[in-house]
Amino acid sequence: MRLNGIFEDGTTFVTSTRHEGDPREWAIERRSALVGAEAILRLRQIHSNIVVSADEYGALSTADADLVDGDAISFAGEIRHLMQPTVLTADCIPLALWSRSRGRFVIVHAGWKGLTSGVVEEAAGNLGDSKLQAIFGPFARSCCYDFGRQHALELSELIDVDMVATGTSGQVTLDLFKGASEILKRIGVDAVGEDPPCTICNRDYYFSYRGGDMSLRMGSFLI
Prior knowledge:
Blueprint: E1 2-6, E2 12-15, H1 28-35, E3 39-41, E4 51-53, E5 72-76, E6 83-85, E7 87-89, E8 93-99, E9 104-110, H2 112-117, H3 119-127, E10 132-136, H4 149-159, E11 164-166, E12 172-174, H5 176-186, E13 190-191, E14 218-222
Parallel strand pairs: 3-6, 4-5, 10-13
Antiparallel strand pairs: 1-2, 2-14, 5-9, 7-14, 8-9, 8-10, 11-12
């Protein structure tokens, strides 16, 4: 597991690694040992701005055929001991938000489509608090995330943040971290924890869709 950061209340945001395997395939015993709950609560991630509340967790299912569409899960801390809310990623951003005053959390799956659709703003707004903290997990960074210049310019215009960058080989890349960080700053959210590592250039440790892991995913959750 990678420790992404710790919120002020002591809650820890972690991401599983290649060494733990895909969390969708963890047996119940392994889930209980790793996440502190027998079941993993996840969504059918569709690169949207949909935030799903897990307060009625009994109405949501962990079975693939019954997954609810969405890209962020809002929940009270105690729910994770019953059914662990989790986002799956393999280059997209895993992001956790915490409300200091309400003691609630949102975990977010945000790629470039999610950023431009407003999933970060929707997730923060769902918490209904002006005192929020955010922690990033590992994702594709500007060193490696090759992108067409025109498309990167168009996306930058959509969120009013210049995300066009230059990679380690001089290629045009997209800076998701800058985009997400500026959005958080704009809505008054404090980011805590270290800068996240790149999934593409650390493939010995993380799954990467761009790196060839087409179906494998890492899980990010709170413990």
